[in-house]
Design brief:
2 copies of one chain form a homodimer. The first copy, chain A, has 199 residues and is of the alpha/beta class. Helices cover 41% and strands 13% of the residues of chain A. Chain A has 8 helices and 6 strands, in the order αααββαβαβαβαβα. In chain A, helix 1 crosses helix 2.
Amino acid sequence: MHTSPAIERLVSSLKRLPGIGEKSATRLAFFLLGAPEGLVSELSQAVARIKQDTVLCERCFNLTDQSPCPICRDPRRDPSVVCVVEEPADLVSVEKSGGFQGHYHVLGGALAPIDGVGPDELRIGELEARVREGGVTEVILATNPNAEGDATAHYIAECLRDTEARLTRIAYGMPLGGDLEYADHVTVGRSLANRQELE
Amino acid sequence: MHTSPAIERLVSSLKRLPGIGEKSATRLAFFLLGAPEGLVSELSQAVARIKQDTVLCERCFNLTDQSPCPICRDPRRDPSVVCVVEEPADLVSVEKSGGFQGHYHVLGGALAPIDGVGPDELRIGELEARVREGGVTEVILATNPNAEGDATAHYIAECLRDTEARLTRIAYGMPLGGDLEYADHVTVGRSLANRQELE
């Protein structure tokens, strides 16, 4: 359809990214055609090097440029509180909230028996070893608030039940800026059940 | 925020693309991290080569790998009908409609005096020369259906008034799958005014 194979090639590459269809890909390709050379070569190199410049942290399994990762190495952070998340992107979300100063443990997903993801496919054994090693006083289970995330949190809680660590789960409730009228009833129910005193 | 400079770099590059914010950029970066090497290197190269592998067609100013472009070179296409569009992306849209077998002329934008885009910034002189050269029987003004596109179409029509070419403008009306209830009244009005006999 395009009269230039270079555009055709770029559009077909961009279309393979999640959430980018034919129209967005075409728009991005034409944007890049008109963009400054610096921006284009920067993007190309950033894409090319993403895989070789990234490793997993040996301790928390977060993505990093060198292991252990900057969070595990940071002396100002508290290693006795471990926040368990499914994916590195979830860790980024928690970091952005600015409310957490402990360490992390990235599971690499959530339990999903139908898709063949059992406990052995996740880094649950590594988490257990880390907690049993001692020094961890609290494990915050911050897997996603859905069926898989809940099942994973409960499974981990069972594994760690006999350790000294306190086991907590992130709170359910209404999202900020949400609207009761449009919220699903489970969320509204949890939000009511978890109601707190106004101070 | 990210613990890997490589991810940081990719996210910040991706964020400079139109329609891609922090969240989408992060999602795309993590997708690329987990994607097969082939897909990643293909995308990187397609981005890197987009500018040097693309030139403007000397005749219609479409983007192409060699000038004149495949459309201008195609003997099955009719050079006597010229469809005038604002941008190469518009040409792609017309091509996809499958309803046009003539040639094109890409203006490089629309008249926008406030943004400093006058007739000299567009390829209107080149279009006039092309029509005055002879052999063009119809000029279809397919600039966008908005104020700038209309002004550009009228300006070009004035310039070509004294030539032999028939001057036409693409039709206004309801988009396919549209809903009268939600359509703006100008579109509904035009759609009524342009009503056609049912056969």
